[in-house]
Design brief:
With 168 residues, this protein is mainly alpha-helical. It is built from five helices and two strands. It has a two-stranded antiparallel ribbon with strand order 1-2. The relative contact order is 0.20.
Length: 168
């Protein structure tokens, strides 16, 4: 099973430094539903769901690549790729926390939550594509979305194999 799109990633570059764009990307990097949370969640799940360990580890590795890409973008935009987000309404730093990880052990619950989180990540990336006026960043975020769509397909396939059709 493939864990990412077969298309290559665009070159990691930005038009110019922009701290506001970096703050936006921090949400994707280390937000409640960001790449760091996905890595920790899928790795944890690979330890407690033995029968799907390989897929969860594979997807986690793709999320690590996303984290690396976003970290490089944040740095190029003039900010340190730190594990926090910034609440722009009050300029408050919100550190990443392990409370973001889904510690479920029931496979059905895990898969449905993973699908929901991947869908939410896609919506967040789409929102950020609208907010960021840098064609290089937009292309990278669009490419990351393709991987997140593959992850949804993987989780739906696992669910189907174990439990049948997902009821909506």
């Amino acid at each position: 099973m493939e864990y990412c799109s077969c298309k290559p990633y665009p070159k990691i570059e930005v038009e110019r430094e922009n701290i506001e764009y970096a703050k936006i990307l921090l949400e994707d990097y280390a937000g409640e539903n960001g790449e760091d949370t996905a890595i920790h969640t899928y790795f944890y799940q690979s330890l407690v769901v033995e029968e799907e360990k390989e897929i969860l580890e594979g997807i986690s590795k793709v999320e690590m690549h996303h984290l690396e890409i976003l970290g490089k973008l944040i740095y190029q935009l003039g900010n340190l790729p730190s594990f926090y987000t910034v609440d722009s309404n009050i300029e408050c730093v919100i550190p990443w926390t392990s409370k973001n990880v889904n510690y479920a052990t029931n496979l059905s619950t895990i898969l449905l939550d993973n699908i929901a989180r991947e869908m939410k990540a896609i919506k967040t990336y789409q929102k950020h594509i609208q907010e960021i006026n840098d064609p290089y960043i937009k292309k990278i975020l669009e490419r990351i979305i393709e991987d997140e769509e593959v992850h949804i397909h993987c989780f739906e396939q696992i669910y189907h194999n174990h439990f049948g059709k997902i009821c909506e």
